[in-house]
Amino acid sequence: MLQVARWRIIxxxxxxxxxxxxxxxxxxPANVLExxxxxxxxxxxxxxxxxxxxxxxxxxVDLATLRQQRLEQIADDMSRQLRESDPxxxxxxxxxxxxxxxxxxxxxxxxxxxxxxxxAIVSPIQVNQFGNSEPDVEFRDAGDGVIEAQVTxxxxxxxxxxxVRQSIEVIRRRVDPTGVAEVTIVPQGxxxxxxxxxxxxxxxxxxxxxxxxALLTFHLPAQNIDPLDAQEGRLPSDAVLFPYxxxxxxxxGVVVRRRPELTGEYLNNxxxxxxxxxxxxxxxxxxxxxxxxxxxNISTDNVGRQFAIVLDGQVLTDPVFNEPICGGSxxxxxxxxxxxxxxxALLLNAGALPVPLTVIEERTVGAELGQDAINSGALAxxxxxxATLVFMALAYxxxxxxxxxxxxxxxVLIVAAxxxxxxxxxxxGIAGLILTIAMAVDANVLIYERMxxxxxxxxxxxxxxxxxxxxxxxxxxxxxxxxILAALILFQFGIGPVRGFAWTLSIGVITSVFTAVLVTxxxxxxxxxxxxxxxxxxx
Length: 539
Fold this sequence. Notes:
Elements: H1 6-23, H2 30-33, H3 38-41, E1 46-47, H4 49-52, E2 54-61, H5 63-85, E3 91-97, E4 100-105, H6 111-118, E5 124-126, E6 133-135, E7 137-143, E8 146-151, H7 153-175, E9 184-188, E10 192-198, H8 203-211, E11 216-219, H9 227-231, E12 239-243, E13 253-257, E14 262-263, E15 267-274, E16 281-287, H10 289-301, E17 308-311, E18 314-317, E19 329-332, H11 338-350, E20 357-365, H12 370-396, H13 398-421, E21 424-425, H14 427-440, H15 442-456, H16 461-493, H17 497-531
Parallel strand pairs: 1-21
Antiparallel strand pairs: 2-10, 2-20, 3-4, 4-8, 5-6, 7-8, 9-10, 11-14, 11-17, 12-13, 15-16, 16-19, 17-18
């Protein structure tokens, strides 16, 4: 007699029940949905931008800040190169002025040797396919022992493109951390980014989440600075005044070393929480291995001194190192609400933008296709399901109806899976669902045809059913594995609607194999035990 392991029956029942629970909110009326538990009430499929509209932002790289950052780096490189290349060359001052990086030599007669030495920090940029290149930085003798360096236009364009690529990934982690909400983030030109977020009716919310650079730095205070000089802006080139983030509660600021001791790139994790003593909202963070060692050394060497935790040029907090901190974790406190602490943790986990982005256009996008597309997609799905039902019933009789019952369970599981992960349903996603329905019975066709062959060779019903499932399994796995691989490639390299299609196709393939093999096998086993046929009703 046909045997099915009990664990398989239990697994199918659990999966089917859970699937029905999480798929139900998509079809239940609002008054019924309100009485359901919160974890079920929130599990509904999101609709993509083409079906329900949303917000769109056009962002532009801040080229002035990008140039300034590069000039700061060039000024440091110039000082280091002159110091290390030739002991006779002495640079007594560095700084940024008038859009150029400047270094003043102690002895103007060393100008020629210094300019020659600085060529070591020039990186040629290839400008065409013929191998022609241009320098990324140009130096000139400005007189009176001063060397000036400026970023070339070619280098600035390349930096803008690189910043756009890096910013796209950071933005994606901020607004779509799970990767399934179908947020579209694409470059436009050399220095612009278009962001489309389905279902976000207020562009301001999107702007706030994206717009913050979220550059977290840790600074030690600058020494021997006169407070009056600090207030009037008379600071040495290696010091900077950062204001407190909450100016109403803490006016003024802190003078710190310009170069940070540690940056947020070493953060391993950040999460919102509450201080055990004050019960205030805080952000707890943990460094990775290298960051932990650096922070341990800093705290050990500076016990009793303050240090400033700075976010985007504003001091969040400036505690004192009371003892060495070598555990690799810390806490950021301030005037946080639970929501603002959560937002900051999200930004820190997503990473910092390489350069500030300016919003040059924002708008609310209306649904291009909306309910008509949903209705058309639903109608196409129903027609496809009915056609499949009729074909399977005519081709395989009772076994075809069992396959169609498994197909219904498959549809429920697809909806439940998309609801659980918060995946967005777009028009290409609807196409993926319809394609999945059409392909879902492939595995059953393979199994049933194998049963026919086994029965034609004289095997009994039980042996024919067992052989149908066991011998068709290799073919089923091969066929669906290639489909999954293709979907993964689309998901990895596609954007927006292409990802939506790949996501629904992947879910559909997995649930199809589950229902076609396990569900169908259990239903056939139950039928066999009840009917005890002498011959299978497929010819």
